[in-house]
Amino acid sequence: xxxxxxxxxxxxxxxxxxxxxxxxxxxxxxxxxxxxxxxxxxxxxxxxxxxxxxxxxxxxxxxxxxxxxxxxxxxxxxxxxxxxxxxxxxxxxxxxxxxxxxxxxxxxxxxxxxxxxxxxxxxxxxxxxxxxxxxxxxxxxxxxxxxxxxxxxxxxxxxxxxxxxxxxxxxxxxxxxxxxxxxxxxxxxxxxxxxxxxxxxxxxxxxxxxxxxxxxxxxxxxxxxxxxxxxxxxxxxxxxxxxxxxxxxxxxxxxxxxxxxxxxxxxxxxxxxxxxxxxxxxxxxxxxxxxxxxxxxxxxxxxxxxxxxxxxxxxxxxxxxxxxxxxxxxxxxxxxxxxxxxxxxxxxxxxxxxxxxxxxxxxxxxxx
Length: 368
Fold this sequence. Notes:
The protein is α/β, with parallel strands linked by helices. It contains 16 helices and 17 strands. The strands form four sheets. A seven-stranded mixed β-sheet has the order 9-8-7-14-15-17-16, with helices on both faces. Strands 2-1-5-6 form a four-stranded parallel β-sheet, with helices on one face. It is globular, with a radius of gyration of 21 Å.
């Protein structure tokens, strides 16, 4: 990406993924069901785009129907339509599934449209135009050429939905973990600890030598699994809370809807709890640590990253912990979260990386 030009190289504003789908004469086949398909269909409806049919991997078909369509195997779709456009409606990092997607896109025009996990906005040409200054500022803050190229590639992918473009900027997570020089005396704060898998990754990486671990997980069932999974760590070394990471200590409504955005948090603004959500405690990291230091913090909190970062402001200013921040839940996270962290502590070196995943969900900021 040219230093004086925020537009990704090769980008034609007249031909983005939604324009391509609007103008195609081929049948549009949705690959996948569930919340991911719902979100993509909602955007397609705004553009007047109608799906022709739905398919799933052979092992998932099993008589399923979706949106009034009988979900079909690829072989059935091929027999019915011959040539067609495939729209990927799910996320995966599984090597065999990525291989299957690569096989499909070698034969057919294939897109993985970028729609946010949380919220309704899109990272499109309008977003780029409206945030030109912020994008240029972010580019100037990134600490290596690989990060700047990753930004350029991710912008191009988000506009075009082209999987080949996305996969060009994949890199192994181990590279960044090595650069962060994670040692054996860390105080690790895991925000969005899920069932304890990322805590166990940390334990493997450090050989189970560490100072202390703090783990926050708002989902009740996930938290129960976390406690069972990490039963062998004493409460003196592991402080686990069934709570959300937020900007202050408060109560939130946790939306436990299945699928993408299942952990979306909203501030409580009514006297009664309605719908499928339930009340959870929320805490700021500054409150959780109570003035004590942290050396490593991971943010993966399903769209609440901004609030969680604000709730870590004093810790970031005073102790400068290394940070791993998910940048893919909301449309603006890619640009806005790094700038927020820089505003809090301008001393960080910032690195942007995308790890193997379709769509661009496993995109992280690393602050050192």
